[in-house]
Amino acid sequence: MPVWRIGGGSNILVHPSGLPGLTLWMGRMRGFSWRTGNHGTLFVEADAGCPTRHLLNFSLARGFSGLEFATGIHGSIGGALICNAGAGADSMGQKVEWIESVEENGTFRRWESREVSFGYRSSSLGEGDRLITRCGLKLDPAERSQVRERVLRFWSLRKGQPHGAMTAGCVFKNPGIGEDPAGLLLDRSGCKEFRIGDARVSPLHANFIENAGSATASDIWELIRVCRRRVYDATGIWLELEVNLLGGPWE
Questions:
Q1: How many domains does the chain have?
Q2: pLDDT tens digits for 216-230?
Q3: Domain, as residue range, for 192
Q4: With contact defined as beta carbons under 8 Å apart, do 58 and 39 qualify?
Q5: Do residues 66 and 95 lie in contact, with contact meaning Cβ atoms separated by under 8 Å?
Q6: 114 Cβ contact list (under 8 Å, min separation 6)
Q7: Backbone phi, psi, residue 19, to 5°
Q8: Same structural domain for residues 234 and 151?
């Protein structure tokens, strides 16, 4: 039967007809442990369902650097690994030492970092059906004031996003080097505040779709399609989805 995996529940859109088969929620696998290595390096072992913000708060409190990019990023470690969550030039894949998973045929596997390809908001872990169970991360010692300064800097990058609103995170990936970011392309194409039912493009940042009340998955999906078409008609750029579509088929 089909198997669907959900961690923190962010960055996903579930098909209106639901998910056939079995859905695994990793939210109970949320622990982490740590040990110090040579030169004060911190090695963290985290379950896939561990919220990214828990590790960020831990590293901030103890003075370890490497996860500041996760400021304002919701979701779990498993999802952050699969989509290589990040901000600016920093991302999850840069901190990975190893990853453990259950493969499609039921076998257990341990991946060394060199065996995994991490790209912009993607990784080779997302290819095929596998369940990420836990990982090892390496963090560097730093003054807590320096870590806090970096956290504030990343927070300032997100101050224009709709915090507190019901969203799934960024809808589209940025097109790439030499192109304007997706939010700016959507804004220039007249998408900001466009609305279908209770789904609306955020008035603060056009790359976020808010549920302004009782929006359905159908409303959100139709709004995604309209916005992508508007950008394509205006610029010739076909935006790639960053939000993950579960179920389907989607038109």
A1: 2
A2: 999 999 999 999 999
A3: 182-246
A4: no
A5: yes
A6: none
A7: -120, 110
A8: no
